[in-house]
Amino acid sequence: MGINDVIDLQEIKTKVEALLLENKTYEIDIFFSPGTSIMQLSWFICHQSLGLNTRLLQTREGKFTGKKEPDLIELKIEKSSVPMSVTISQQNQTQASASTDYLISPGIASVYKKADLIAQTDNVRCLIRGASGTGKEHLARCIHENSARAAKPYLAVNCSALSDSLLESRLFGYVKGAFTDAKDDKKGILEEANGGTVFLDEIGDISPYMQQALLRVLQSGEIMPVGGNKPKKIDVRIVSATHKPLEEMCEEGTFRWDLYYRLAVVELALPTLQERGAEEKKALIEFFLKRIKKELNKKQLLKFSKDAYAQLLAYPFAGNIRELENVIMGLYVFCENEVQINDLPQRFFQSGSKQRLSFNWQENEKDLISRALTFYKGNQNKTLKALGYGSINTLKSKMREYGIE
Fold first, then answer.
1. FRET pair for 151, CA 20 to 30 Å: which of 216, 245, 248, 360?
2. What is the pTM of this model?
3. Residue 292: pLDDT above 50?
4. From residue 149, how far is each of 106, 123, 153, 235, 306 by CA, in Å?
5. Which of 269, 293, 309 is the last residue of a domain?
6. Where is average pLDDT lowest: 103-112, 279-288, 359-368?
7. How far is C-alpha 88 from the geometric centre of its chain's CA atoms?
8. Calpha distance 255→268 (Å, rounded)
C-alpha cells in the first residue's frame, strides 16, 4: 500500500479503507496480527465501520497448543446494527491548521464537512467551483491538511497567470538545455509535491494544448519534463478550481470532456458573499476586524459609525471574502479608532455599484499600496508593517508588478 509512516493512523486507515473498498464485492479475510498496533487498529476500524463482508483472523503458534501446525482463529466481534462513521484526528500540534485564520460559518459548514470526507479518501480528485474571492484555495488547503498527505508538500499554481510554455515548465519541470535559460535540470511542482497535493487554480483558463498535456499526466501518473525523454512517476492528489461553467465549455468544444471527468471526480461549490446573507457578512466583518487587528499589532479594535456600518453591509462585494478582507485591512491603515462613512473606499458610492459584476483584485491591491506609501511618505518599512506583507522583498515585488515607484 506504500505506507510512509507505520504509526500514522490517518494515513494507514485511509489506504486500508481504499484497498477494502476496491474489493468490496469479495469476501475478505484480514490477518490481524502482523504489523504495528496502529495498523491493527486501522484494520479493526475498517472492519467495524465499512459494512463489508470481512473477517478478522489471527494465528496462534503450535507451541501454545501442543500442535505441529498453528491454529487459525477468527475474532468474533459483534457489529452494531447502526451504521458507523469513524473520523480519525491525529494532528501534529506544531503545525498550524489552515482553518485557524479562517471563519467556517454556517453558510459554508456543509461544504467543509464534504471536504473532510474527500480528504479521508486518498487520491480522489476534486473540482472546486466558486466566484473569485470565495475561498477556493483555502478549501483546497484544508483538504490537503486533513488528509493522509498532510506531511507532504502542498503547492498551488494559478493557471490563468502563465503562458503555455511557462505553465508547462512550472508543472512538469525541464532538463538542462531544454531552452536558452535552462542552465540546470529543474523539477516542476508536480514532482516537487510528490506524495502531497497540487492545487490548480483557474483550470478553466488553460489552452487545448495544456488540456491534452495535463490529461496525459492524469491518465498515466507520469510527467515528461520539457526537453526530456524519460518519464517520471508521480503520486499527487490534484485539486482544481474554476469560476467558469466547464460543462458549457465542453459543449462548445473549448474544454475537453475527458479532462473534465478526470478532474471532477467529486465537486464542491462555494457560495458568493452576497448569497450567504447579512448575518454571515456581519460575522465575517467581526472576524476580520479581530484577526487583522492582531496581524497589524493595532492597540484598539476598529469601530464603525452607524452610517459607515450600514454602507458596509449594503455594499455587494463582488470580490467576495477577499474584497471584504482587503477593505478591512485598508481601513485599519487609514483610520485610528472609528470609521466614518467618508473613510470607506470611493467605489462604495459610485452609481450602479450594486449591479457591479466584477472585482479587480490587482487594481485594488495597487491602490491600497499606493495610498499606504503616500500616507507614510514613501517609507517602505512602515508601509510593509501596515499592510502585513511577509517581507520587504514581497512589498518591492508588488511595487514592481504594479509599476509603483
1. 216
2. 0.64
3. yes
4. 27, 9, 8, 10, 47
5. 269
6. 359-368
7. 19
8. 19
**Domain with 36 in it:** 9-75
Strands, DSSP E only, in 76-161? Answer: 126-129, 154-158
Q: Check pLDDT > 60 for residue 147.
A: yes
Please enumerate in sequence order all residues whose Cβ is within 8 A of that of 248, keeping only pairs 6 or more positions apart, or say none.
none
- pLDDT for the residue 367: 79
Q: Which residues contact 381 (CB under 8 A, 6 or more apart)?
A: 392
> Which residue carries 457560495 as its cell?
271
| Three-point CA angle 135, 344, 397, nearest 5° | 55
Q: Please list the helix, strand and coil fractions of the chain in percent, rounded to the nearest 5, in that order.
A: 50, 15, 40
185 in the same domain as 173? yes
The domain that holds 184 is classified in CATH as: 3.40.50.300
288, 302 Cβ separation under 8 angstroms: no
Contact 292/330 with Cβ under 8 angstroms? no
* Residues 188 and 171 sit within 8 Å (Cβ to Cβ): yes
Q: Do 160 and 285 lie in a common domain?
A: no
Which has more pLDDT, 184 or 114? 114
Domain count, the chain: 3
| Surface-to-core class of residue 135, CB atoms within 10 Å of its CB (0-12 exposed, 13-18 middle, 19+ buried) | buried
- Would you call 72 exposed, middle or buried from its count of C-beta atoms within 10 A (0-12, 13-18, 19+)? exposed
Q: Per-residue pLDDT tens for 299-325? A: 899 999 999 999 999 999 989 999 999
Q: Which of 109, 99, 48 is nearest to 78 (CA)?
A: 48
Q: Which residue has the higher pLDDT, 358 or 141?
A: 141
Q: Are 259 and 215 in contact (CB under 8 A)?
A: yes
pLDDT class of 101 with cuts at 50, 70, 90: low
Which of left, alpha, beta for 103 (phi over 0: left; psi -120 to 50: alpha)?
beta
Distances (CA, A) of 304 to 16, 106, 287, 314: 53, 25, 14, 14
| Helices vs. strands in the chain: H and E counts, helices first | 15, 14
Question: What stretches of 36-135 show up as alpha helix (H) in DSSP?
Answer: 37-49, 106-120
> What sign does the dihedral 251-257-259-260 (CA atoms) show?
positive
> Which SS3 state, helix, strand or coil, does residue 317 take?
coil
Question: In whole angstroms, how far apart are CA 104 and each of 112, 113, 295?
Answer: 8, 10, 19
